[in-house]
Amino acid sequence: MAAQRVGDLTVEELKRLIREVVWESLQELLSDPDAGLELRSEVRERLQRSLSERWSEENTFPAEEVARRLGLER
């Protein structure tokens, strides 16, 4: 844009500028600062162990049982 001041912008130029600023802000907020980094092997193993324990049958309960335990049955 050739304009130096906001007051010199057309309505369309101002809208475009606002869109660009909002887009850049959203990208900054939603980006993953760790993207592209590699996990250390011990962290990867701990995550895998945690996921397998979390989803094993011995650590899960049917929704009906959870509702009963919490007194949420009607």
Describe it for me?
- The protein is mainly α and 74 residues long.
- The chain has a domain of 34 residues.
- 55% of the residues lie in helices and 0% in strands.
- The chain contains three helices and no strands.
- It starts with 10 loop residues before the first helix and ends in a 5-residue tail after the last helix.
- The relative contact order is 0.06.
- The model has no long low-confidence stretch (mean pLDDT 86).
Which properties best describe this structure?
55% helix
Count of DSSP E strands?
Answer: 0
- The helix-strand sequence is HHH
Percent helix:
55-70%
SS-based structural class?
Answer: mainly alpha
What is the helix tally? 3
Strand content: under 5%
Radius of gyration: 26 Å
* Morphology: elongated
Largest beta-sheet characterization: none
In terms of per-residue confidence, which ranges show pLDDT below 50 for 5 or more consecutive residues?
Answer: none
Average the pLDDT over all residues and give the rounded result: 86
Span between termini: 64 Å
